[in-house]
From TrEMBL:
Descriptive protein name: Uncharacterized protein
Organism: Nonomuraea endophytica
Lineage of the species this protein comes from: Bacteria, Bacillati, Actinomycetota, Actinomycetes, Streptosporangiales
Source organism, top-level taxon: Bacteria
Length: 401
């Protein structure tokens, strides 16, 4: 089975990077370009459910998406030091420029020094501005303008556009070798994540009554069956269980089931095979019995047992937002803002424009979000509202999440 990689970057780089990715058997690329690197987080948020991994054409869009907490899938970026930087230096030298006197942004100073040293070039007259979270294209532009007029090497299309009429600017483009290195790293990470998330998770459940048990199993993406001695067997995988337990810390279903019965004991086992998972689930249930009438334990390999706290902060019937975010490909903060918009409207339908304004996004981004929610059964169209202009009518949505 193939893997879909979302390639994110400026429009003039995405196609070449994607084409290099698609040289790898089983890899297909979703080309997602932007006009400015600040648009990267919104692009990732809108398309998160369509890919198994992200490859960014540079560190800046990657860091912007990461710092915005949008990376719910494995991600990597193309490193511009090494082969990419060397190819740029060769190009500048062929054009007659002194490559020992440069102003360079984004690349880490240590990486620049290492590349120059390996090439036998001095570094004492280089000016470097390494990437930091607070760095913006405006700061990079100001950094280069403060310099003594050296040629500029930039990794940012916005910097290149701003300075190309003032000074000689070389914008680095990812080398094929650098793209292949980044893709190899991404595929290894994605494969490991997929194998980890696909680990079998078996739950053995002892409960007084069965009310709500099937609903809880469904929320975990699992199936429910009878087991020996009146115990119930819940079969799921690591990914949904990890999300529903807040990273293996608390089990909201424990408190909800306890509200309807005196005894609720749950033992989860996480293993590489069904036999291993069942053995660990038995161990977990035995420990839960020793703890008391209401208890949940997760047993892992290497004799590791985790007691899952009873989480009562989530009201009965309300889905865990992290599970929901994974399901629809949106971030938890976005879902929280959508819930606030729903509550502020008193449950009345909202237009795509109103959603866009409340979330501070473009209308096309709001339409994509609402379409995802609609496909997941968490929003429904109730009609159209004429916008009062020659533009397209505004669709009305009722949020049901």
């Amino acid at each position: 089975m193939g893997i879909v990689i979302g390639v994110v970057g400026p429009h003039d780089l995405v196609d070449d990077v994607a084409a290099t990715c698609e040289e790898q058997p089983g890899v297909s690329a979703l080309r997602l370009d932007y006009d400015h690197e600040s648009q990267a987080p919104a692009i990732v948020e809108a398309h998160a459910n369509a890919v198994e991994g992200w490859l960014f054409t540079g560190i800046v869009p990657y860091m912007l998406a990461r710092d915005a907490d949008m990376l719910s899938r494995p991600a990597s970026f193309v490193d511009y030091s090494g082969a990419t930087l060397l190819s740029g230096l060769v190009r500048l030298q062929h054009e007659g420029y002194d490559v020992t006197r440069l102003s360079i942004d984004t690349l880490a100073p240590a990486d620049v020094t290492a590349t120059f040293t390996e090439a036998g070039l001095p570094t004492d007259q280089l000016r470097t501005l390494g990437y930091r979270p607070e760095m913006t294209s405006k700061k990079a532009i100001a950094f280069h303008r403060r310099g003594p007029g050296h040629p500029v090497i930039t990794c940012l299309s916005s910097v290149h556009e701003a300075l190309r009429e003032e000074m000689h600017v070389l914008r680095l483009a990812p080398s094929v070798h650098s793209v292949r290195v980044a893709l190899r790293q991404l595929l290894l990470t994605a494969e490991g994540q997929a194998q980890e998330d696909a680990q079998i998770a078996l739950g053995l459940i002892e409960v007084d009554g069965e009310d709500g048990l099937l609903r809880e199993a469904t929320a975990l993406g699992g199936t429910l069956a009878g087991f020996r001695g009146g115990t119930h067997l819940l079969v799921t995988t690591r990914g949904p269980l990890y999300d529903a337990t807040g990273g293996f810390t608390g089990l909201p279903m424990l408190g909800r089931l306890a509200a309807g019965g005196r005894v609720v004991r749950v033992g989860f086992g996480l293993g590489r095979s069904a036999a291993e998972a069942e053995s660990l689930a038995r161990r977990a249930l035995a420990r839960a019995r020793r703890i008391g009438d209401v208890a949940a334990v997760l047993s892992l390999r290497a004799d590791t047992d985790i007691v899952l706290e009873s989480v009562t902060s989530t009201p009965a019937g309300e889905q865990n937002l992290s599970v929901l975010a994974r399901r629809v490909g949106l971030s938890v903060p976005t879902l929280e803002r959508l819930l606030e918009a729903r509550d502020a409207s008193g449950g009345e339908p909202l237009t795509t424009r109103e959603i866009a304004e409340r979330l501070a996004v473009q209308q096309r981004t709001a339409r994509r979000m609402l379409h995802r929610l609609e496909l997941a059964g968490l929003a429904e169209r109730t009609g159209n509202l004429t916008s009062g202009s020659s533009g397209r009518p505004l669709t009305l949505y009722r949020l049901t999440l």
